[in-house]
Write a structure and sequence with these properties.
Elements (H helix, E strand, L loop, with lengths): L6 H15 L3 E5 L15 H6 L7 E5 L3 E5 L4 H7 L6 E4 L5 H8 L4 E4 L6 H7 L4 E4 L4 H5 L12 E2 L2 H4 L3 H14 L4 E4 L2 H7 L2 E2 L12 E5 L4 E4 L7 H7 L3 E4 L4 H6 L5 E4 L6 H10 L2 E4 L5 H5 L3 H31 L4 H13 L4 E4 L4 E4 L23 E6 L1 E3 L2 E2 L2 E6 L7 H18 L2 E3 L4 H4 L5 H4 L10 E3 L8 E6 L13 E4 L2 E4 L3 E4 L2 E9 L4 E7 L17 H18 L5 H10 L4
Helix pairs in contact: 14-15, 14-20
Amino acid sequence: MLIEVSHPERLQALRAELARIGVDGFLIPRGDEYLGEYVPPSGERLAWISGFTGSAGMAVVLAERAALFTDGRYTTQAEAQTDPALWERRHLIEEPPQEWLARHAARLRIGYDPWLHPQAAVERLGAGTTLVPLAANPLDAVWADRPAPPAAPAVPHPAAYAGRDSAAKREEAAATLRAAGEEAAVLADPHSLAWLLNLRGGDLEHTPLPLGFALLRADARVDLFLDPVKLSDATRAHLGNAVATHPPRALQGVLEGLAGQVVRVDPDITPLWFSATLQAAGATVKPGEDPCRLPRACKNPVEQQGARAAHRRDALALARFLAWFAAAAPAGGETEVSAAEHLLACRRALPLFRAESFPAISGAGENGAIIHYRATEASNRPIRANECYLIDSGGQFLDGTTDITRTLWTGPGTPPADLVERYTRVLQGHIALARLRFPQGVAGAHIDAIARAALWQAGLDYDHGTGHGIGSFLSVHEGPASISRAARPIPLREGMILSDEPGFYLPGHYGIRIENLLLVRGFQGLARPFLEFETLTLVPYERRLIDLGLLSPAERAWVDAYHARVLGEIGAELEPEVRGWLEGACAPL
């Protein structure tokens, strides 16, 4: 029988291992070797060592001190989940790890696992200290009960949902390599191999990925590195003769076979191990963006239609949930977990539904102020009358991925004036972004402030980005574009799907966030092409929290038109009692 090892004991064991191998500290990122936001249990190193379970963060462990770095979404969660006697809690943006390292570890040798860090991150982190690549991960050496890696089957994703066959995608991506004078490109992001080869999998709970690596050749052939148990005969037939399959242990040998060739490696999303291995073999590593990343983000017409259809179905589940919630919340007896389970049951009844796109954020009262809160058996609390409740959830459908947030008033009383004002200002920013038209070439960082302006006027703000990209039956968080002050200046393009989710959070009291998904589409300006957004999400807002006096006539008209569209698109498919609720929720303001 395994004995549970406490977090102090885990930290002590890691420090002993660091001393044994001769380094003064160790970097522990949240990601695994695939560098994704979501990791299987076998990759939850940061959670194992610290107790912090958020989806973004990094730890630095030295002999006498340790620090955990998280962004604004997770500061409250990090404080709740980690022991202050063991961990200093730091803000990832305001006090980056490299600055902390420069102050506390300038003369020390800090180890890192080259499988877990991209080259760009290592260069940034090593600016003020000495970083040492390690042949083996010392945390893995002391994690005695580490789970086995996942081995779910990889399955074909039909062209009826993908919109294009794999051969066409491979040829288009390979053409970019030929034009750049490159013989191959490393595909270290499993999203890329899933998109390129029209594969999906079940290695992650909420993101339908087969975890693996691939190498794209300039002649459009692909070397795919997946555990053989994931590949059935049907999947091998789907891949065809142009895709050679290898077990993961063959990866180093295939890379070494590229000696003398020019190989593209995306330094932002590829573990440093790849560049080091290629350079040691005599290949020329050429930094460049993953050739699948931007084409994947620009959804083709079939994927766009799939997204619309998925959102219409998802809206039926949300309408049923909200109608139920309107009656259940004031009566009492429901909890954060029971509400999330009811919404999941509504989604499970829908055609083509496969899973939640992330664990639902179901936060009542003060828990709504924890931006990426997840109700657990320990934290679950009743949903009480006359308080704010935030539900952020999404679905994975074969034809699209959804993500929606609504902030609700449980009633039956009148909400406080300050809550109404702040909700309305968040709504104004949400509307401003949805209505925006902008010239081609504009990036997400250029328009983030538009969603904040109404809050800024009142001296309010929120500590997260305004929007992230969305995959097509892939990750609910997809690059390369996003809407954030910290975003890379990636111009928005037709076919991209992004979220629109401003918010406001009063720690200890409530959280407000309103989220729809937006599809970027073309609009012909007077002198040059413009872009605009098509709102995909079809769910009414919480009218009891809207201050009509704050809304302009144009904002009010936008809400009324949106509600009329919601009722018109999904009302006829609902049961009479739910349709009756929806008619009231969508009535003109």
